[in-house]
Amino acid sequence: MISCRNLTRRFGEFTAVDGLTFEVAVGAICAFLGPNGAGKSTTVKMLTGLLPPSSGEVEVCGIEVCGMKVQSDPLELKRRIGVLPEDLGLFDDLTVEEHLLLTGSVYGVERHEARSRTNQLLHALSLEHGRHTFAASCSHGMRKKTSFAMALLPNPRVLFLDEPFEAIDPVTSRIMRGLLESVSRRGVTVFLTSHILSVVEQIATQLIMIRKGKIVWDSPIADLPQALEQHYFDLVEAPVVEELEWLGPARS
Amino acid sequence: MARAGAILRALALAYRRDQKSLQTVVGNNFFIVSALLLQSAGGFIYLIIGLVLLFPLSTDPLRKIPASRLALWPIQRRERWLLRVVSPWINPLSWAIAGLAVWAARGKVTLGFWGLAAGLFAAGFLLSDLSFVSTQTVWRLIPQFPGPLNQLIRKNLREMLSTLDLYCALLLSLSAVVCRVLRVALPPEGLLAITVLVVLALSSYAQCLFGLDGAGGLGRYRLLPLRGWQILAAKDAAFLLVVIPLTLPLAPLAGIGAALVALTVGHEPSVAHPRKQTRWRFSSGASLVFGIFQAVLMAVGAAGVFFSSALVLIPCAALWALSVLYYGRVMERWFGE
């Protein structure tokens, strides 16, 4: 469903993403892990056509992406994917509910069906009380849930989610996991980035880890040789706890 | 006091990095044309215009510090008072108004004038705090429109409602309504002139249609399965939905003609050179020359409709449609970059 060959993105002299090659199968939940600045969001932007790669090939749902410059219909990919982008992509002047209704109308979902899906998503994500709140006044968690609901509402073939679980309360996080598992069982491919390894361990079927723009691990989750956190520390970055002398002596 | 000094220095640095306030006045078509027309009216008129235009720009500099951060800092009550009193003078516009006052009064600064300026600043501070709370209720009253672009048009109308251009145009339009109510007969040329002024007050916004969408909004446009021309048409529809009622008591067809021309000319800077705008400010256009160019073409378009025939609207609409299609394509290329 997602296919990537030698995907590279350079910003001047700096190579943010360096020759990524991977495949994600239909119905898989692929977790794309790495430290801050490793190139995760840049990769998501390239996979969703928001950023053209410097070189390499990307195919999503059988459509060649590559910055959306090579397609005959540039909207075809957009219709098939749902995205929760890094900046959430919300308009300050629309309410939570209006964002979902907007998504329904521009993705061609019938009006009463869009209304019904909107109500279900608002209920499922505990957004009912804030449905008439403008995005500018929403908490970060509410904004993220709104963007997540927008990605899900048109029932896309592939979901790209950039850090969906960060800043989300535990109950909603559990509901979101349930929703993702549910769509995955129906053949929707999920590609997500996250720093919350405990959630990733429970939901992902495939793991890709990157470090400094290069893949250091790509396997089904069942093939992990050890616990995910330890494996991440071993491959990506081991934590070094600095002793801050100026904090004073420890108290017993 | 050292703490207050450090905060004031940080505020001054933030202001130096954000010199948009003055630019909004310099790049606003209404201000440019008013300045040209009122050349002979004397300094005091400039002072009044300056005050009216600068007043909304003089928002509380302390708002640059997030309220929660200000509340958490360990500063004493008297330091807060010091910040309150001194911080307005970090804003270069405060000095500009003070300078204008001295210049206009030829050295004899009256207490009344200083009182007026202080009152305007105080009102500006209070409005900064109240504006968003009160506007949310009004924003929800924006009607629904048919078609898939409904929510985008509503959003664009809300954006226009949070610029001062619209209220300036509204005041001009209301003056015409008052004339009609009082049965004061306006000469045809006067009717056309006020119509053009109403659209002129809004025309700088037409040069920065995406200025209030923010990074998140611009990102969402790139994700939505919409053609560039649809996104642009939703912007223009909101503009026309504002212009039509405002010019109804004047010369509505000439107003539509002027609006179509303003939008056609405004697409280039809006799409090719997007400029971020600030809410509750006057919109800032591309440049002085471009503003004059846009204003002249608008006046020509409106005069053509007003003095010749409503059929002049046809070429105006055709040019606008071509511009929407062309700049829609430009937007799609921009989305792919």
Question: Structural class of chain B, please?
Answer: mainly alpha
Largest interface: A-B, 35 and 33 residues
Strand order of the biggest β-sheet of chain A:
6-7-8-3-9-10
Q: How many H/I helical runs of chain B?
A: 16
Q: Please state the overall shape of chain A, judged from the principal axes of the Cα atoms.
A: globular
As residue ranges, the low-confidence spans of chain B are none
H and E string of chain B: HHHHHHHHHHHHHHHH
Q: Which ranges of chain A are low-confidence, i.e. pLDDT below 50, for 5 or more consecutive residues? A: none
Structural Rg of chain B: 22 Å
Helix percent band of chain A: 25-40%
- Summed up, the helix count of chain A is 8
Q: What is the CA-CA span between the terminal residues of chain A?
A: 56 Å
CATH superfamily of chain A, by name, is P-loop containing nucleotide triphosphate hydrolases
N-end to C-end Cα span of chain B: 50 Å
Count of discrete domains of chain A: 1
Describe this structure in words.
The complex is a heterodimer of chains A (252) and B (337). The relative contact order of chain A is 0.17. The model of chain A has no long low-confidence stretch (mean pLDDT 92). Chain A has 252 residues and is of the alpha/beta class. In chain A, the strands form 2 sheets. In chain A, strands 6-7-8-3-9-10 form a 6-stranded mixed sheet, sandwiched between helices. Chain A is built from 8 helices and 10 strands. Chain A has one domain: Rossmann fold (3-Layer(aba) Sandwich), CATH 3.40.50. Chain B has 16 helices and no strands. The mean pLDDT of chain B is 82. Chain B starts with a helix and ends with a helix. Chain B folds into 2 domains: 138 residues, no CATH class; 186 residues, no CATH class. Chain B has 337 residues and is an all-alpha fold. Classes of the chains: A alpha/beta (252), B mainly alpha (337). At the A-B interface, helix 2 and helix 3 of A face helix 8, helix 9 and helix 12 of B.
